[in-house]
């Protein structure tokens, strides 16, 4: 069993005015961020937002140009900080010739109080492939090995970088379940993902970065509320330019033969639409999702949900 960490008032993670530059590009720009112990925090942002650099600084893989990064009150580059954190990175650099159980056993040896080998293999869904060599594994199986490596040291802080990339639906569901279980033991999970439904399903808190700066911070519902309103989907003869000019419509756009409108005044907009186009059809009204909020807060073109 994963035992809970000591109860401490010290935040799991703290960034204080942290900046990191690559040449003329500021990957992280004066970041202030405090993450208390316990729960799941999703770190989101478009490409180039500074997520990878933030994770690298958090793990002590690089030094900030200015400011301070702390893991449970300590510099993440100190050896004792390495004992309290586990990381599931996209490339673990494991030798192809080692078997799965040998890899977990090797990584476990780096920690003072690792979890039992059989427990890690079971939790990560690796028991049936424990004898297989890493070089013979599929992409999804390698991701499960990476998860096993991340949790084998019984860490207080678990960092997951695109954890479900390459996983099938069953393996993805299993990993979600284990992440939730891990977080319920008062440990901290920091999740970086491009799958916004994953963040919406798992995270207690979302931290949204753009151009190296913190632009939104709150629960998934609070992030959605920053955009607010409703989304109307319909099939209409009306030109999108006309719809965009309507005073109660925040935005309007086409996707194929369907038209989408964003508004805070659904009933009034619907009355206007029906008055202007009595042939309007395929009408649907939904709340703004996390994906829509993400794209609008980062000034990107809204995406339309895939038809089912």
UniProtKB/TrEMBL annotation:
<feature type="domain" description="ABC transporter">
    <location>
        <begin position="13"/>
        <end position="236"/>
    </location>
</feature>
<dbReference type="InterPro" id="IPR003439">
    <property type="entry name" value="ABC_transporter-like_ATP-bd"/>
</dbReference>
<keyword id="KW-0813">Transport</keyword>
<keyword id="KW-0067">ATP-binding</keyword>
<dbReference type="Pfam" id="PF00005">
    <property type="entry name" value="ABC_tran"/>
</dbReference>
<keyword id="KW-0378">Hydrolase</keyword>
<protein>
    <submittedName>
        <fullName>Antibiotic transport system ATP-binding protein</fullName>
        <ecNumber>3.6.3.25</ecNumber>
    </submittedName>
</protein>
<dbReference type="GO" id="GO:0016887">
    <property type="term" value="F:ATP hydrolysis activity"/>
</dbReference>
<dbReference type="InterPro" id="IPR017871">
    <property type="entry name" value="ABC_transporter-like_CS"/>
</dbReference>
<dbReference type="InterPro" id="IPR027417">
    <property type="entry name" value="P-loop_NTPase"/>
</dbReference>
<keyword id="KW-0547">Nucleotide-binding</keyword>
<dbReference type="GO" id="GO:0005524">
    <property type="term" value="F:ATP binding"/>
</dbReference>
<dbReference type="InterPro" id="IPR003593">
    <property type="entry name" value="AAA+_ATPase"/>
</dbReference>
<dbReference type="InterPro" id="IPR050763">
    <property type="entry name" value="ABC_transporter_ATP-binding"/>
</dbReference>
């Amino acid at each position: 069993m994963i035992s809970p960490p000591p109860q401490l008032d010290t935040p799991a993670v703290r960034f204080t005015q942290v900046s990191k530059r690559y040449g003329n590009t500021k990957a992280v720009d004066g970041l202030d961020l405090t993450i208390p112990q316990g729960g799941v925090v999703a770190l989101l942002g478009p490409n180039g937002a500074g997520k990878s650099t933030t994770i690298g600084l958090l793990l002590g893989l690089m030094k900030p140009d200015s400011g301070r990064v702390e893991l449970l009150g300590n510099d993440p580059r100190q050896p004792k900080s390495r004992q309290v954190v586990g990381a599931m990175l996209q490339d673990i650099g494991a030798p192809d010739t080692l078997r799965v159980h040998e890899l977990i056993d090797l990584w476990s040896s780096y920690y003072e109080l690792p979890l039992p080998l059989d427990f890690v293999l079971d939790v990560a869904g690796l028991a049936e492939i424990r004898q297989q060599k890493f070089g013979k594994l599929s992409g999804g199986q390698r991701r499960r090995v990476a998860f096993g490596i991340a949790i084998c040291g019984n860490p207080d802080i678990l960092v997951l970088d695109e954890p479900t990339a390459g996983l099938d639906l069953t393996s993805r569901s299993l990993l979600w379940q284990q992440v939730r279980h891990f977080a319920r033991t008062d440990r901290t999970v920091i999740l970086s993902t491009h799958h916004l439904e994953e963040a919406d399903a798992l995270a207690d808190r979302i931290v949204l970065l753009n151009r190296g700066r913190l632009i939104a911070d709150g629960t998934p519902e609070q992030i959605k509320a920053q955009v607010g309103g409703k989304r109307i989907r319909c099939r209409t003869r009306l030109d999108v330019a006309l719809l965009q000019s309507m005073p109660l419509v925040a935005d309007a756009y086409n996707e194929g033969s369907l038209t989408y409108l964003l508004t805070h005044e659904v009933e009034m907009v619907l009355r206007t639409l029906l008055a202007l186009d009595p042939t309007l059809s395929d009408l649907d009204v939904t709340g703004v999702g996390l994906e829509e909020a993400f794209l609008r807060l980062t000034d990107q073109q809204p995406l339309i949900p895939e038809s089912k």
